[in-house]
Every structure is written in C-alpha cells, then in structure tokens.
Write a structure and sequence with these properties.
alpha+beta; 18% strand; globular
C-alpha cells in the first residue's frame, strides 16, 4: 500500500482505545484506534518510508456537544466546553484527520486553542501530561467551580461516548 492508501485504510478502522497506547501496530491487529494511535501509526509509516512534510500535531480545542459526538454530558453538568487534546496530521500544510470515517476537522478548526508538533512516541505519556496541565491552567484561569478530577472524569465520559 502507498501512503494515501494507508491513510484511507486507517480512516475506515473504527474508533476505540487500544490495549497499549504506546504500540501503534495495534491499530492494525486490533482493528481500532484513537486519534492518537491512528495518527502516530501514520506518522511512523511516513518516517519509515521517508515521506516528507508529514507532521503529527496535538491540537487543544474546545470540545462541545455541537462539534464532537459526545451526547449531553456537558450540558447535563452545565459546562459549555472542555479543552480536549486531539491528534491529527499536517501533510504539506494540509490537515488530515483519520480518527473515524465521519471525522471532519472543519467542525473543530475554529475552536483550536493551541497546537504543537510531536513525535509518535509522545502520544502516550507526553500527550496525557500536556493535556492535563492545559486543563489545570484553564481551570485556574476561568475560576471554575470544578476540580481537575471532576473535569477529567466528565471528559472520560465524553470519550467513552465516542466509542458507542
């Protein structure tokens, strides 16, 4: 398979967490993956095949019930949005999101708060720490009534709903 065929194939694989977030090959063997594992797999594929101009990006965006298929969890908790870390690729400067067949980056494009480029190995611990630190700062800056643990659990409920 060439790179475009691999991208198309990975996009068709269902959304779901893998048994080990550091082993991107599980995207193929378990036939599922998250934004992190799918895009890290593709970036690794690009690196191994000397495909230039492929960047792996973490974008923190305002996750809402309108732009992400998470159900009513936020409105049930009287929350407008939660900053969510989302991985995607930039290939020759163009955003490519293969998280699911329905992925449409345009739905969150205007809600991006921050972007950084990472390497595939960073989708495990680094991404989680980066995301958690961002939320902790956001909670302080917004004088939120929620604790970090409360917001993180609400976020986890949102993520579980994405797999349904």
């Amino acid at each position: 398979m060439n790179f475009q065929e691999t991208i198309n194939f990975v996009k068709q694989i269902p959304y779901g967490r893998n048994a080990n977030r550091s082993d991107f090959s599980l995207v193929l063997t378990e036939k599922k993956g998250t934004c992190s594992s799918k895009h890290a797999y593709l970036k690794s594929f690009a690196n191994q095949n000397n495909i230039p101009n492929v960047k792996l990006i973490i974008g923190i965006y305002k996750m809402t019930e309108d732009n992400t298929n998470i159900g009513n969890i936020l409105s049930d908790n009287n929350i407008k949005y939660i900053p969510e870390a989302h991985c995607y690729l930039k290939i020759d400067g163009k955003t490519v999101d293969v998280t699911s067949k329905e992925s449409n980056f345009d739905k969150i494009k205007s809600e991006i708060l921050e972007e950084i480029e990472i390497e595939p190995f960073q989708v495990a611990d680094f991404k989680v720490n980066y995301h958690q630190n961002f939320i902790k700062r956001w909670l302080k800056e917004t004088d939120s009534e929620f604790t970090f643990d409360e917001i993180w659990e609400i976020r986890e409920q949102c993520i579980r709903n994405l797999s349904l």
